[in-house]
Amino acid sequence: MTPDPEPELREALLAAVPSLRAFAISLSGQVDRADDLVQDTILRALSNLHRFERGTNLNAWLFTILRNLFHSEYRKRRREVEDPDGSYAGRLKVQPEQGSRLDFEDFRTALAKLPSDQREALLLVGASGFSYEEAASICGCAVGTIKSRVNRARFRLASLLNVDDIEDLGPDSMTRAALQG
Amino acid sequence: MTVDKGNKLARAVMDNSLDDKLATDPKLDSGSQKRIGDQLRAMYDELMQQPVPDRFRELLDQLDKKNGTKEGSQ
Lengths: 181, 74
Known about the structure:
The structure holds 2 protein chains of 2 kinds. By secondary structure, chain A is mainly alpha-helical. Chain A has a domain of about 80 residues: Rna Polymerase Sigma Factor, Chain: A. In chain A, helix 1 runs antiparallel to helix 2, helix 3 packs across helix 8 and helix 7 packs across helix 9. The termini of chain A are far apart. Chain B is mostly helical. Chain B has one domain. Helices cover about 55% and strands about 0% of the residues of chain B. Chain B is elongated, with a radius of gyration of 24 Å. In chain B, about 20% of the residues are buried. The C terminus of chain B is likely disordered. The chains are: A mainly alpha, B mainly alpha. Chains A and B meet through helix 1, helix 2, helix 6, helix 7 and helix 9 of A and helix 1, helix 2 and helix 3 of B.
């Protein structure tokens, strides 16, 4: 047998956890479920290490596993995830206890209203730092499809958040809230 | 001052600068796109900065043990 999880790999997996969690939390809207998803991803990765081509992007491989797990194992609970009645958004509002700041609440709520394929594409390209090509590979679809989803996601978010009529949506939105209040 | 979103969106639709032609997809102007992107990354960064739950460290520790200490590291 080959020597299993070498120390560097263990460290690499551990180092990938924050970005996997951020993706899983943003995708599923639930911290607990996200952590289960990340744990399953790590276990799946370790049992499939022989399939990982050394020298290629470990993160992209892990994201692919996580994304596939999300869509297969978690499809049963899809109704919750798709959020027809705002339950995802409702759960996200619990997150300030996890250290989130209130000024992201509007954004989270809007993000929750996106179809999951658009949310996923936007998270991969706009937040996780993957290229369109990498995101397409992770999602198993064409590059043009990813571009289209990302565009639609941004467009939808902009209209949900009324981006046009505010100067600054960034962390300063607290100031904005104060001024409006 | 009311915001004339219609104009802005119309302008956005024309701003189709990506390589792929996505005729049916509306495009955002770059300012709005940047604001959305900034907000997304800010939210995401906050999640990234959360401490890694102990369960993951423990999980990998357990796996190390289970796989034996072939490498000779403790």
